[in-house]
Amino acid sequence: MKHRRYIFTSESVTEGHPDKICDQISDAVLDAALRDDPDSRVACECLVKTGIVIVAGEITTRTYIDIPGVVRRTIRNIGYDDPSYGFDCEGCGVLTSISEQSPDIAQGVVEREDREQGAGDQGLMFGLAVRETPELMPLSITLAHGLSRRLAQVRKKKILPYLRPDGKTEVALEYIDGKPKRVDTVVIAAQHDPRVKMSVLRRDILENVIRPVCGRYLDGKTRYFINGTGKFVMGGPVADAGLTGRKIISDTYGGHGSHGGGAFSGKDPSKVDRSGSYAARYIAKNIVAAGLADRCEVQVAYVIGVAEPVSLLVNTNGTSRIPEDEIEDMVREIFPLKPAAIIRELRLKRPIYEKTAAYGHFGRRDPDFTWERTDKVEALRKLAGLDKKVNGAQRSAA
After folding, report:
1. In the predicted structure, residue 30 carries a pLDDT above the cut 90
2. Angstrom distances, CA of residue 343 to CA of 69, 271, 335, 368, 371
3. What string of H, E and C letters represents the secondary structure of 184-249?
4. Looking at the DSSP assignment, which residues form a beta bridge with residue 314?
5. Which residues pair with residue 14 across a beta bridge?
6. How many of the other CB atoms lie within 10 Å of CB of 8?
7. Are residues 87 and 237 in contact, defined by beta-carbon separation less than 8 angstroms?
8. According to the model, what pLDDT value does residue 171 have?
9. Does the pLDDT of residue 61 top 90, yes or no?
10. Which are the catalytic amino acids?
11. What value does the mean pLDDT of the chain take?
12. Average pLDDT in the 238-260 region?
C-alpha cells in the first residue's frame, strides 16, 4: 500500500519582530484600559518604523491611559533598550490619534434592558483542534513557536548574549498519512551583534535553540538554514516597518485549517474577531478532547449588532465518531455562542491580552487562556452517549 507523504511548513516570529512589537503595544493599551474599566471598548492599531511609534484607533473608556508610557514600557520589555540598535524605548517618538467608538457601532454593542449585546462586527471566525500534540495543536506551529520563544529566552538569559530582539523561525514537517513523523527543515533568522562570527552563531543556535525544541523530531536528513543570507545585523523597525495584525496565521494555527481574515490584537472582546475565534477554538478543542473526532474545525459567523451567530459549522474531515450535524446540535446546547455569553464564560474582560500577542493565541498552558480549557468534555460525551457505549462494550466483554 502506497503511503501519502507530504511536507507542511509553519512560521513564527519573535517578540522583537516589528509586526509583533505592534501587536504587543496594541494589546498593552487594551490591557491598560481593561485594568481600570472592564467595559472599555478598544480598537487600537499601531505602526512602528525607525524612531517612531504611531498609535491610532477608537477607545471608549472611563479611565486614563498613558499611551506613551505604555508604549515605552512594552518596547523596553521586548529588549529594544539600546540606542545602537537604531530603535529604542527612550529615543523613539510616540504619536497618537485616538477617538471614541462610533455611536453607530456602539448602539448595537452596548447591552440595554430592551436588547442584548450584539456582535461588535460582522465576519467569520475559525477554531481548530487536532490530535498532534498534548495541547491539541498542529505540531508544525507548536515547534515554530517553541523556536521563537527559545530565541528570546537565550537572549534575555544571556546564554547567547550577542542576539538581538528580531527573529523569525520556520519548521517544515514531514507527514505520512496525515500524521507528523519528522522535521524535514528548520529555518531560523536571528538578529545579532555584528561582532559575532557566523560559524559560532550557527553552532550555538543549533545546540541551544533547535535541539532543545525539536530534538525528538530531528534526524540525519534534517536540513538547517540559520541566517541564510550570512548576516542579520540590521533588524527591528529600522529594517522593516511593523503593523498590528500582520501575523494572523502564526497567531492561530500556522496555516493549518482556515482563517476568517480578522486579527486579534488591540481589540476588546466585544469584537467577535477575537472572542468568536477564541470560542471556536474552545469548542473545537473540547470536541477533540472528548474523543468525538481526531480533528475538528469550527466556523462561526456574525452580523454587527446581532447576538445570534449567522451560522455554525463543525467539520471533522471524516474523523468524527458520530454525525457532524449531531455534534453541531450538541455545541448549540452546551457552548456559549452569543458575544455576551462568550465573554462571561471565558472571562474575557480581564487585562490578559499583552501576553497573547507573541508566540500564538492558542495551545498555551496558562490559566488565563480560558479558551484552552477542556471542561466541556464530560457534557459532550454524555450527550453523544460515548460513555454508555464504552460501558456497554466492557459489559459485553465481561
Report:
1. yes
2. 28, 10, 12, 13, 11
3. EEEEEEEEECCCCCHHHHHHHHHHHHHHHHHHHHCCCCCEEEECCCCCCCCCHHHHCCEECCCCHH
4. 298
5. none
6. 18
7. yes
8. 98
9. yes
10. 17, 19-20, 45, 58, 168, 232, 240-241, 246-247, 267, 271, 273
11. 92
12. 96
Per-residue pLDDT tens for 34-59? 999 999 999 999 999 999 999 999 99
Pairing verdict, β 93-99 and 52-60? parallel
| pLDDT band at residue 393 using 50, 70 and 90 as cut-offs | very low
Beta strands 295-302 and 52-60: pairing type? unpaired
Question: Which DSSP helix (H) or strand (E) runs through 99?
Answer: strand 93-99
Strands 295-302 and 311-315, by their bridges, are antiparallel
- What number of other Cβ atoms are within 10 A of residue 217's Cβ? 18
Q: Is the Cβ–Cβ distance between 310 and 299 less than 8 Å?
A: no
What mean pLDDT do residues 4-18 have?
Answer: 97
Question: Measuring CA to CA, how many Å separate 199 from each of 97, 186, 203, 230?
Answer: 46, 17, 6, 10
C-alpha cell at 57: 484607533
Residue 100 in contact with residue 59, Cβ under 8 Å?
A: yes
Give the CA distances from residue 385 to residues 108, 179, 321, 382, 392, in Å, rounded to whole numbers and listed in that order. 40, 28, 11, 5, 11
Report residue 69 as a C-alpha cell: 508610557
End-to-end CA distance of the chain: 36
Cell of 291: 474523543
* Confidence label for 304 from pLDDT (cuts 50, 70 and 90): confident
Three-class secondary structure of residue 45 per DSSP: strand
Closest CA to 142 of 316, 365, 298, 346: 365
Residues 126 and 272 sit within 8 Å (Cβ to Cβ): no
- Note the pLDDT of residue 56: 97
What whole-number distance in Å separates Cα of residue 42 and Cα of residue 21?
18
CA distance 333 to 112: 25
**52/33 Cα distance (integer angstroms):** 23
Tell me: the pLDDT tens digits for 110-146?
665 555 776 767 789 999 999 999 999 999 999 999 9
Q: Find the mean pLDDT for residues 297-325.
A: 93
Buried-state track 29-54, b at ≥16 Cβ within 10 A, e below 16: bbbbbbeebeebbbbbbbbbbeeebb
